[in-house]
Amino acid sequence: MKDFVYHWKAITHYYIETSDDKAPVTDTNIPSHLDQMLGILLQEEREREFGVTGPCMEYLLHHKILETLYTLGKADCPPGMKQQVLVFYTKLLGRIQQPLLPHINVHRPVQKLIRLCGEVLATPTENEEIQFLCIVCAKLKQNPYLVNFFLENKLKSLASKGTPDVISEDSLKGQDCLSTDTGQSCQPEELSGAMGLEHTELEDEPPQQIDDLSTSLDNLAVTSLPEATVVRPNQDYNLVNSLLNLTRSPDGRIAVKACEGLMLLVSLPEPAAAKCLTQSTCLCELLTDRLASLYKALPQSVDPLDIETVEAINWGLDSYSHKEDASAFPGKRALISFLSWFDYCDQLIKEAQKTAAVALARAVHERFFIGVMEPQLMQTSEMGILTSTALLHRIVRQVTSDVLLQEMVFFILGEQREPETLADISRHPLRHRLIEHCDHISDEISIMTLRMFEHLLQKPNEHILYNLVLRNLEERNYTEYKPVCPEDKDVVENGLIAGAVDLEEDPLFTDISPDNTLSNQEWLSSSPPATPEHPKNDGKTEVHKIVNSFLCLVPDEAKSSYHVEGTGYDTYLRDAHRQFQDYCAICLRWEWPGSPKALEKCNLEATFFEGHFLKVLFDRMGRILDQPYDVNLQVTSVLSRLSLFPHPHIHEYLLDPYVNLASGCRSLFSVIVRVVGDLMVRIQRIPDFTPKLLLVRKRLLGLEPEGPIIDHITLLEGVIVLEEFCKELAAIAFVKYHTSSTP
């Protein structure tokens, strides 16, 4: 105890006896005395049971030593004192095990010291400031309720001791004798005079000495350094405000530490803190304004491949050297900075307390998605559309926070859930524009937009599929209802829905060889057979019928895969099984029905419209013989993704060839049937069709070198994609049936 008081008196005597306040603190014994005091406190705690406060700690708390140190640090007298005070606070809070922050004589000076942090960027004390702020954040993370001590009233002010006047601490700024701009400081005699007001009492009343010293220091007029350019609407949550300032530090390590501190604070479960965080600080503005400025700093044109392939971005590792990068491209530095900050926003929202997360995500939606990205996506410049869509695609892939994903989905698709009509497909302008871009005159824009939708469909958000497809299939009004009659029993037993037409009897398929079909027995050996107790009158057709229908769609003379090794149907089965498991895992919590809605309960009279998204996909599928190979691959990829979803209405509409379509309706199968009909006519006009088709397939697989241009190359490539797509759909249908039939 005596040693502790001795070291503290040695520090206070310095201010009374010094005549040179310009000498740096490192030339004095103050740092050594502070270290000794800290060592004594640590030793004292080790010698006592946990939770028992020793006399030295009692002395520190009772005599408001931290308040006095704060005032000395604020005055930065002698020069460097602020740094010493920050280090002392940091070590005290970090190493002492017993909870100190609940004490008013700890959290009050800590709160004041927090306000000194981040006032000026790139100061010599920046490292100590961020270390201090982060230790406070860590303590709050351990005991979240303590955050309430750091939520100040908006107009809270400090009253000078001994005077009835209430003077805001901010009002002291500008009435100062310390100024870094001029390099001038208080005169030594002024400081020692202020310290010496209680000189006569120091000898006789040591406890009073400290209080009086604190009083005299509180009365000092202390200047503030020029503030960083962050507008603080109020001072409710100074810990956040100081960290926000330090996120702008030119030192990347300081900025990252500040971001980490904010990450800790937003995750605190205290509702009052969450409300204050989003309503009384600039956090939302910081996130969104920086996103906007980094987005606007990107070049007008960036190669979509560069946007897609730039390495995965982690916000804490945003370090990039153009000179060391062999794969550099114009704008890469700016792109990495944008994606890195987006990753930080995503992770922050992911970690945030629920109400804070919603507020932050909505701010990103309103201030960045709508305010900055939407005008870029709605523009008419093809280069601008391509770049902005590629960026949207990238952040769709990158987002991991459910709350931010929800806002992104509402931004892209809108919140509508009622069935679409042709008259209102432009109700959400951005959704309408993006879907139209799937059928853009520019193949690049079409492919990029389709890829964006393909990745969007893989996100764990129920609204995506419902908005794009399911809301239009809810009533099953694409079907024509025919009740099952007793005389239809033989048809049901053959695995067909009553009234359906067997495709093998369709005029389009009269040339199909029986050798190309898989026998009923082959499929039934791996599929549960229908039983009298469970006839297939629930909208599900026997799987072998479905598989054969898809496999036999393309006529023999238009098939080429059986001439090339390794292009069989079994590969699709393996892929479909893996992908279907993934989709089932995503959709598990959406509680979809296991069977279609009963037709008796459906509104079959309502006019059916497949929806804007499927309309565009079906239109493009109908032109598969006349579109570039890359476009066809992307269109069929999106359709196969849709087919994988384990919803009975999607399965029925996209994968059941035997569904009774209502008049004027089309399904995926009917679209393909029309394409095949067109193909069979066009084949007759192309000499040596089969050899040319085989050559094109081998070139696509890299089995043949590129040679002379082949006539009708677009159609030949389209036929190959069509054949592969039908095999893929057959595999998906089989896997879905087999999985749903297995307990």
UniProtKB/TrEMBL annotation:
Residues 515-528 have a biased composition (Polar residues). Residues 515-540 are annotated as: Disordered. This is FHF complex subunit HOOK interacting protein 2A. Residues 610-702 form the FHF complex subunit HOOK-interacting protein C-terminal domain. Pfam families: DUF5917, KELAA, RAI16-like. Belongs to the FHIP family.
